Design the sequence.
């Protein structure tokens, strides 16, 4: 049992977002608890209480603040929103073994635990790989697996699906089901609710640092879509999604890639091999595909970051090589920590401007709900806030082609819609946008065209009209339909 009694907490910087106010919660052993609510409501802070990073709670009579870290690790396994922040090794197999090694298990037991976890997670193809060569979703799988090796009684997951494709989300659902059948306690802070609707025992809805209401799973399912939206929550069923955007008319003309080729370390099998890709200029182009399908590699090659990539871009009657593409493209990376450089949020936006305009920069920040954070250091923000700062910088750059890699990772419903609105606005200004995403809600909110990657190749390229939207939703729903429903009998 986990018990928090009248807990309040505030961060040293004095920021109100993420603070907790008089929180009381009891979690029974073996429960799956969903923490939900808008960004900044306190979900992540609550997970830090449970895993001992903020040591103010009691579990099984033990005060976590008085336990050494290695004892806490035996009780709680944590998967953070950014998996890179919890890696200690360069290769995947060593990372899986690290936790058990750190706890002093015998070698034979470590080998057995690692082998069992690899089998349960079905990650054999990811073994003996360089972690930093994995996609964001593949890194998340390794983070989950490395925690599972130690078989703690409590698992705490903070936005575990933020970078995962539909199939990988289904894998997370399967694994949470396994942990539940084993009697483990699982606490998940999430904006995506649909994959947990048949697993969660209760949903803890938070608002402004307080627990506003606790729903049974039956009560949660009974909420209508307008009620969920009023609470700032994403839908429980993807099947009911529809196109929800203003029409965006292209500027005319097209963006053509006769061929774009790239291979890691001169491998025989190319990582990326795009042939005869033609998409409309001035469109918002959704780029979908499973983790590792080549989407992020495509983005890096398209904007000229991969020097070994071969191919040129034909755009508005101009042919751009890699060097020219660097000057005309702007990329918001999947891990935005790599592109935040300045001492304040406002300076980060000004840095992207050809000519600094503070009034214009502040309008961009206001459109993304960032004005109140403009004086803070970007690295002090939450993952979702950093994401919006990087998008603000992209908007300020005024480049002709903007590539966004998972721009709504970790964003709640309201902020996802604000991002979608800004992307539509950019398209109306004549910009061409490529949006790499696993977020069907974002796609239906702003995208006008769709391309799908598999094994480094484009397998689908069409307008996102009603027919295209149907194909897109089928892609996202297909992963779940391929598997049986996860009940205690099938796990």
Sequence:
């Amino acid at each position: 049992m986990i018990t928090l009694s009248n807990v309040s907490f505030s961060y040293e910087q004095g920021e109100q977002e993420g603070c907790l106010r008089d929180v009381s919660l009891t979690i029974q052993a073996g429960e799956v608890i969903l923490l939900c609510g808008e960004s900044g409501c306190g979900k992540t802070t609550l997970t830090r209480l449970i895993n001992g990073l903020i040591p103010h709670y009691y579990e099984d009579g033990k005060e976590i603040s008085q336990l050494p870290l290695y004892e806490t690790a035996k009780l709680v396994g944590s998967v953070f929103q950014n998996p890179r922040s919890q890696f200690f090794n360069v290769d995947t197999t060593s990372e899986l073994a690290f936790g058990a090694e750190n706890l002093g298990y015998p070698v034979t037991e470590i080998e057995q635990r690692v082998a069992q976890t690899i089998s349960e997670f079905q990650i054999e193809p990811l073994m003996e790989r360089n972690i930093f060569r994995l996609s964001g979703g593949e890194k998340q799988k390794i983070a989950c697996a490395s925690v599972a090796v130690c078989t703690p009684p409590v698992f705490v997951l903070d936005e575990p699906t933020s970078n995962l494709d539909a199939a990988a989300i289904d894998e997370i659902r399967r694994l949470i089901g396994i942990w539940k059948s084993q009697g483990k306690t699982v606490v998940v802070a999430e904006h995506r609710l649909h994959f947990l609707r048949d697993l969660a025992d209760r949903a803890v809805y938070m608002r402004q640092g307080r627990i506003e209401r606790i729903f049974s799973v039956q009560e949660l399912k009974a909420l209508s879509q307008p009620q969920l939206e009023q609470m700032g929550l994403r839908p429980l069923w993807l099947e009911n999604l529809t196109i929800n955007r203003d029409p965006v008319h292209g500027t005319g003309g097209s963006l053509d890639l006769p061929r774009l080729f790239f291979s890691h370390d001169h491998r025989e099998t190319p990582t990326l091999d795009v042939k005869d890709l033609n998409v409309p200029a001035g469109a918002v182009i959704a780029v979908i595909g499973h983790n590792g399908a080549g989407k992020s590699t495509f983005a890096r090659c398209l904007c000229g970051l991969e020097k070994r990539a071969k191919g040129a871009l034909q755009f508005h009657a101009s042919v751009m090589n890699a060097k020219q593409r660097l000057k005309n493209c702007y990329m918001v990376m999947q891990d935005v920590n790599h592109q935040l450089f300045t001492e304040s949020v406002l300076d980060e936006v000004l840095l992207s401007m050809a000519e600094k305009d503070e009034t214009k920069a502040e309008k961009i920040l206001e459109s993304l709900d960032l004005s109140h954070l403009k004086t803070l250091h970007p690295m002090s923000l939450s993952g979702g806030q950093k994401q919006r700062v990087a998008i603000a910088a992209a908007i300020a750059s005024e480049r002709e082609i903007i590539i966004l890699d998972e721009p709504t990772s970790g964003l709640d419903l309201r902020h996802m819609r604000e991002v979608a609105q800004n992307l539509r606005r950019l398209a109306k200004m004549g910009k061409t946008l490529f949006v790499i995403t696993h977020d069907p809600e974002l796609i239906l909110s702003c995208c006008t065209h769709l391309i799908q990657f598999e094994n480094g190749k484009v397998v689908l390229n069409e307008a996102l009209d009603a027919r295209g939207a149907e194909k897109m939703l089928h892609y996202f729903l297909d992963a779940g339909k391929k598997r049986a429903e996860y009940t205690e009998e099938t796990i």
Notes: DSSP finds 16 helices and 20 strands in the chain. The CA atoms of residues 108 and 446 lie 52 Å apart. The first helix runs from residue 43 to 50. Residues 2-238 form a domain with the Rossmann fold fold (CATH 3.40.50.300).
